[in-house]
Amino acid sequence: DAGVTQSPTHLIKTRGQQVTLRCSPKSGHDTVSWYQQALGQGPQFIFQYYEEEERQRGNFPDRFSGHQFPNYSSELNVNALLLGDSALYLCASSLREVWGTEAFFGQGTRLTVV
Amino acid sequence: QKEVEQDPGPLSVPEGAIVSLNCTYSNSAFQYFMWYRQYSRKGPELLMYTYSSGNKEDGRFTAQVDKSSKYISLFIRDSQPSDSATYLCAMDAGNNRKLIWGLGTSLAVNP
What we know:
The structure holds 2 protein chains of 2 kinds.
Chain A: E1 5-7, E2 10-13, E3 19-24, E4 31-37, E5 44-50, E6 53-57, E7 64-68, E8 74-78, E9 87-94, E10 104-105, E11 109-113
Parallel strand pairs in A: 2-11
Antiparallel strand pairs in A: 1-3, 3-8, 4-5, 4-9, 5-6, 7-8, 9-10, 9-11
Chain B: E1 4-5, E2 11-14, E3 19-25, E4 32-38, E5 45-51, E6 54-58, E7 61-66, E8 71-76, E9 85-92, E10 100-101, E11 105-110
Parallel strand pairs in B: 2-11
Antiparallel strand pairs in B: 1-3, 3-8, 4-5, 4-9, 6-7, 7-8, 9-10, 9-11
């Protein structure tokens, strides 16, 4: 089992550009959540997807959007990038009914906006 | 006031020491309490979770939850250099289905 896989691992973008990050959940998991972790901070919840719909959302602007596919994989899109969007973006997967106690994280995508 | 408070450290201890890591919280609805370990440039790894109050032990690690004080702890016995990492507490009310995190405490165990 490959666990949660994220791609790419590193990314450099220019202010104003758009970026798409990808996540494949652990085998058997149906729920995907995305977190933003700035340097020296704890992760901040962005949103969660289940059954291809956004179920929960944190305090992030509409520039942050996502998608979940029928195979449970997910994408995070960020438009009009700002310098402050530079962070480690983490994807977590779990089974819907055991959320919170069995969340597995990928290694993250480190996004740098210049 | 943040919902979850955690001293970022850094904390430096000699090998073999007992380490105590702590978080406080303000939301009485939290029911699930997790400790994650994060190595540099890696994603968080779940160490332990506790539901409601009480203690839980797993090898060298012990997690404690005191809901009356809104205080959780993680103890590491016989600490090893490989324990050097950032330790994050995270909490969930169970119905919200999203984790609220502390800042993380940076731990260095010196040989």
